Description:
The chain is an all-alpha fold. The chain has twelve helices and two strands; from the N terminus they run H-H-H-H-H-E-E-H-H-H-H-H-H-H. Strand 1 and strand 2 form a beta hairpin.
Amino acid sequence: MMGRILVKVASRRNHHRSVFDVMRDPQGKSSPINYFLNSSKVFGVYVVEFALKSALLAAGIGAYLWAPEKLDVHSQFGFGAGLSLINLTWVLIFLSMLQKFFPQALTSIGSRKQFRELFHLPSVEKFLGKDLADLSDDVFSTNFFKGSENYKILLEEKRALNRGALLVLLAWCALNLLIGVLYFTKVIDQGVLVLVSMFYFLADMICVLIYCPFQKIFMKNRCCVTCRIFNWDSMMICTPLLFIPSWFSDTLCAVALVILIRWEVVFNRHPERFSERFNLNLRCVGCREKLCRMKHQETSEKGPA
């Protein structure tokens, strides 16, 4: 009840309608139509991305069946190849990676929570009379915080998240090593590897909007916003491309590696930004994206201990 009151107050203060203010039927349930009428910009962008990536994969399958040479990453990549399917794939994947470098990008806070600008503690939590949100990089490294019970909780959360991430890493390596073995034993060819990469590109949207096996089986996190491995997607998309060295593969893998390293460095230096206990922007009560609407997940209003 208190969460709803706070949301309504914030909505009036910002002079715009909150995504929480959905029309409800007499039984108090939101209809599917109203969910989409009140969709956030991020949700809308992700739906469009889902459609584009689906079309890209369909085009890739069509090319593999009727013109397999169109999936050659050597001859079909570069200015000389013109508006080829491979060039289009490179551009789309590169643009999806590029937005991960900016905190203002129109993408989920699940990806952007690594940035200091997106870290915000509840205003009731004070340190020396100042809002912790303005002192996050300083306060969380002080002996005062490291000697507190919240610090122990943060470390335990970090260890739990790392355990889930390790399980995902092992499963992902096993799956793609199998794909690599199939490729080098000539059971599948280069075109299939490109198709697998295209499928991974689409699967990223499936995980966010519909169903995520990593979340349900390994991570057990509440939603994508709190996902420990959200920005691993770039490297995951590029994994099959590691088996076919080329300018197409090398450039994408290099950018993906930078994104992955940056993500891991920030997580290990500032785990508080990834915790809904400390970062108010990751809690359901402050969520304006509602990417989980198609998953029908339970909400959470976890607060600090």
